[in-house]
Amino acid sequence: MTTDLTQSAPPVPVDANGLPIDGLQVEPGVVVISVPLLPTATTRTLPVLWNVRGNVATGYWISRVTTDPVAVTVRGEQSVLAAMERVETAAVDVSGLTQTRIARVPLLLPDGVSMLEPVDATVTVTVVPLAGTRPFTIAVQVQNLAAGLDATTDPSTVAIVVAGPAPTLAALAVDQFAATVDASGRGAGSSPADVALRLPQLVTLQSVTPARVTLTIKGR
Questions:
Q1: Phi and psi at residue 176, to the nearest 5°
Q2: Which of 11-20, 28-37, 50-59, 146-155 has the lowest mean pLDDT?
Q3: DSSP 99
Q4: Taking the mean position of all CA atoms in its chain, how far away is CA 31?
Q5: What's the chain's Rg over C-alpha atoms?
Q6: Cα(58)–Cα(127) distance, rounded to whole angstroms?
Q7: Which residues of 3-20 are buried (b: 16+ CB within 10 A; e: fewer)?
Q8: Are residues 97 and 125 in contact, defined by beta-carbon separation less than 8 angstroms?
Q9: Most buried pick, 25, 55, 195, 212, via CB within 10 A?
Q10: Cα–Cα distance between 75 and 169 in angstroms, integer?
């Protein structure tokens, strides 16, 4: 608690050099002087806490949020600063985001508190796709079969599991994949054959069952 300093005193006329001037009468004969006494200001360095609102797009998530600066020095009454644990940024809206956003926003301060050096905060919200897996059943095709021959595989399909960003997985169709066996140089008969897979971009193969099929070749 502080109180203002109030005092009554007669006014004294002075010249340009600050010396009293005799023979002049001043009205009113008494003036009241009030001097406000302010609490001693102090400073404190506090961490900056980011603040976001909204939800990113389906299939994405916020992997990281950073602020620059990470801490600021504020000035104010000691009792107010003692109750502060951090300085928050204004909210950054992330609604529907599918990529990283960088925003410059002000810092929020309580009444009576100011920045020692005024500055805004740069908030970087890193948004990345969620990762996941998805199964597919792919028909096996025979390639490079000699003329006059027919071929079948047992089994005729393979089961695969691919991994990748959730939005990419959701948009995949079975015709974007290919499972093949190579019949080059093979004549009539049955033999094991390794399955080769072609995948769309941005996905990786997690498993294929079976990885080898029985290739049976017959004459027409």
A1: -85, -5
A2: 28-37
A3: S
A4: 62
A5: 40
A6: 11
A7: eeeeeeeeeeeeeeeeee
A8: yes
A9: 195
A10: 52
Q: Is 28 exposed, middle or buried (0-12, 13-18, 19+ CB in 10 A)?
A: exposed
Model pTM?
A: 0.62
What is the CB neighbour count within 10 angstroms for residue 187? 10
Structure token pair of residue 34: 């009030």
pLDDT tens digit string along 33-82? 887 665 666 899 999 999 999 999 998 999 999 999 999 999 998 889 99
Is 3.40.630.10 the CATH number for 41-129?
no
| Domain extents in the chain | 41-129, 131-219
- Please name which of 198, 200, 199, 186 lies closest in space to residue 153, comparing C-alpha atoms: 186
Same fold, 41-129 and 131-219: yes
For 25, the token pair is 């009468």
The length of the chain is: 220
What's the CATH fold of domain 131-219?
RNA Polymerase Alpha Subunit; Chain A, domain 2 (2.170.120)
